[in-house]
User: Fold this.
Amino acid sequence: MIGPNELMIILLLVVILFGGSKLPEIARNLGKASGEFKKAQREAELELIEFERKLREGKFKSNEEKRRKLEEIAKSLKIDTKGLSDDELIEKIKEALPKERAEP
Assistant:
């Protein structure tokens, strides 16, 4: 965890490197990036919940359809799917999601 002293040093370095006029732009871009990342995480979490519901209800017509959906979710979280079984892929996806919301 970053304490207040470390935070002040980081802010001072940012001001020195980029100048005071660039700070609002940098903060805005960081905020947008953070928001987009959280949105992608939420979407992947909802897709995983929907996937698990369909899996329990037996709504997948084939294993290929199941695998394709898993790979789609994994790619949205930037997870490499090569060489992973379906169960391993599900675990990787759950690890990539926020801990407090990963379990349906």
